[in-house]
Amino acid sequence: MISQFAQEILAKGKPEWVAIGRQEGIQIGEQKGRQEEAASMFLKQMRRKFGQTPDWAVEKVTTAKLEQIETWSDNFVFANSVDEVFAS
Prior knowledge:
Layout: H1 4-11, H2 16-50, H3 55-62, H4 66-78, H5 82-86
Helix pairs in contact: 2-4
């Protein structure tokens, strides 16, 4: 059930704040998609190089921001162990 006020706003068309909110939502979704794809690819590379990836590493990667995953990806190139990938 929609209030009379909400019905009047909807009848007038989409206000500017709806468009702004929609654009922000799209940007957040795109960023989340890039993060998830980077995490997936990075974990795949880790499995290929080191075998079974420890649960702690999977958790760390899947909850990390994109920038952090990129840093670990750089470390990965020269790392000899999973621990070296995540070393500061």
